[in-house]
Give the backbone structure.
Amino acid sequence: MLYRVEGIVIRSMDYGENNKIVTLLTKTNGKAGVLIRGAKKVKSRHSSLAQPFTYGEYQYFRGTTGLGTLNHGEIIESHHDLRSQLDLSAYASYAAELTDRTIQDDEPTGFHFEQLKACFAAMKDGKDAQIVSHLFEMRILDLSGYAPELDECVNCGNRVGPFRLSAYAGGIFCTRCTSRDSAALPISEGVHKLLRLFRGMDMRRLGSIALKDETKAELKLCMRALMDTQLGIVLKSRNFLDQLDKLV
Ligand SMILES: [Zn+2]
């Protein structure tokens, strides 16, 4: 069967001497593995279609299951900037790997696709890549069914702060209940507001947000705790991000 889909390359690996196999997050057909013949040849007209983060229209043949074979493709947005700048490349790799690891093959992916597309567009437009990636993490938590409860204490329903964030409980504890998780993180009112904002925000609506370094550091701690505890997956691209953090 011939498929014609919009897709974003979330993984690309060499296959044989001249070919590549890419994993596409498609707008309409879930995640799809596609063999791109000749993609490793520099002069191949298909080589750019196999680059990580490329957004394009892909036409491929596929049997009932298994790998597709690219027939034709057109680039919509090459996302060259996301590959050529080291920090952007680290954040984009993280978003791509997170997507790949949390989406099943035949899952409907229309909303995921729009979120990843908006995530890459925001990074390319120069929005703070760390903030963009935290918002994307929140979307992934939400889409995986692990969105945190941030409006009221998960134990007693109290809506009056201060609160601590319990990654283990997947939400906030008020002062009375905080002893239930000794690892719960103190959160400032500002970061609590920000987390609540992110909790309900579509990636496509993200404007420019500038935050102080200490707010970003606190936000990162919170998101890390939630991602590690709720999703519990080890991502290669996160080591890369962490190493980059030490350099700057
Ligand atoms: Zn409580």
Observations:
- The domain at 84-247 is CATH 1.20.1440.120 (de novo design (two linked rop proteins)).
